[in-house]
Amino acid sequence: MLAMNCFKAGTLEDCIRQQAIELGFDHCRFTHARTPGTWPSYRSWVDAGMHGKMEYLARHSAKKADLSTVLPQVKSVITLAVSYFPGDSGVDEIGEMPVGAKGTVARYARYEDYHDVLKPALVRLVETIQSMVGPDENHLYYMDTGPIMERDLAQRSGLGFVGKHTNVISRDLGNWFFLGEILTTLDLKPDEPEKNRCGTCTRCLHACPTDAILEPFKLDARRCISYLTIELKGSIPEDLRSSIGDRIFGCDDCLAVCPWNRFAREGNLMHSARRDDLKRPDLLALLELDDEQFKKSFQGTPMMRSKRRGLLRNVCVALGNVGDEQALPALEKAKCEPEPLIAEHAQWAIDQILKRHTSSESQ
Ligand code: SF4
Ligand code: SF4
Asked: Which residue's CA lies nearest to atom 1 of ligand 2?
């Protein structure tokens, strides 16, 4: 009934947008499905190896150039945004000195897994579109998992612009939102593209703890803390460990300093999925988790992605950076873990704490 009524609102595009907003999306825009003009620079980025061990990015690169390999006869892409800005109560300052042995988790991960939260709304939107246009058209939805250049499509649809930190910024959501897309065989009228609005600002480049933003619009993922703490499955390069600080899952620093966040606003979809307990978890308690307890604590959250071995590896690094002698017994125990990845990082953390202890005693 809703779908039929909304045709009174105007065009098919107006109708889809209205449905999307009613389902809780914060933005809904349209673009054509042709190859993004930025694809060659994406390919060069992959060829330079800056995607690190994220092999799927290289594997997907041809598909990203030609969306018809993903959905035959595709003509348009519907781009969607969902805010995860937690409101002022959820904002923490970057650059604050770590207090005690607590870890920092990226803001997007302080919720139930967004794939689970967004999927029902995306499915519902696809079903609604299907009911409006009939069975002859095809549609396919994605949330960051598909072989599509979602940031570039978001900019081309006018949803936001790619900032110098390489993430998408919306003029009225700031940096805190998820993207979703629906590829469709419908020939929808494209919206006006957005243009870059960074101006002379370079805050994100200076804020990055590991100098991962090599120059505007060029991120070396191999140096990025989000990659190191989530995507990388093996050992974290030693020269980058101290810059990771107390971050145990992802990093927000380049996003958090962006002046466009003054326009950030809370959305509807993520609100009830908040997990405020994940804001500053206790590092020593995390180090105690066995497989079962890890699952119990993080099932249904993005933190499952790192698995226990990855998270405890990160916890060891954080303890090496912010822990004191009180952390040594737990680290000694972790050093005897059957999982070599955890044992190696535990040894590194012990060495760091002892080094700090020795130098403070000699002063
Ligand atoms: S997420 Fe953190 S480490 Fe990665 S580019 Fe941004 S500031 Fe640098
Ligand atoms: S911090 Fe400044 S340079 Fe970086 S993305 Fe935001 S506006 Fe652009």
From this structure: 258
Overall average pLDDT of the 162-185 stretch: 97
Distance CA 337, CA 350 (A): 14
Per the structure, how many domains does the chain have? 1
* Burial (0-12, 13-18, 19+ Cβ within 10 Å), 276: exposed
Q: Is 223 in the pocket of ligand 2 (CB under 6 A)?
A: no
Ligand 2 atom at minimum distance from 203 CA: 1
Element at 31 (helix H, strand E): strand 27-32
In a domain, 177, yes or no: yes
CB–CB of 80/177 below 8 Å?
Answer: no
pLDDT, tens digit (0-9, with 9 covering 90-100), for 142-168: 998 788 999 999 999 999 999 999 999
Distance (Å) from CA 127 to ligand 1 centroid:
37
Beta-carbon contacts of 120 under 8 Å, excluding residues fewer than 6 positions away, are none
Q: Which of 202, 224, 317 to mutate to test the pocket of ligand 1 (most atoms within 8 A of CB)?
A: 224
Catalogue the active-site residues.
Answer: 144
Distance 251 CA to ligand 1 centre (A): 6
What is residue 95's predicted lDDT score, i.e. its pLDDT?
47
The whole domain housing 93 covers: 2-281
67 Cβ contact partners less than 8 Å away, ≥ 6 residues apart: 33, 35, 74, 77, 148, 183
30: in domain: yes
148 in a structural domain: yes
Which stretches within 134-277 are classed as H helix?
150-156, 203-207, 225-226, 238-241, 253-256
- Going by CA atoms, what residue is nearest to atom 2 of ligand 1? 251
Residue 329 lies in a domain: no
pLDDT in tens, 266-322: 999 999 999 999 989 999 999 999 999 999 999 999 999 999 999 999 999 999 999
Distance CA 61, CA 44 (A): 11
pTM, to two decimals: 0.93
Q: 166 — alpha (psi -120 to 50), left (phi > 0) or beta?
A: left
Q: 278 CA to middle of ligand 1, Å?
A: 20
Phi-psi region of 138 (alpha: psi -120 to 50; beta: other; left: phi over 0): beta
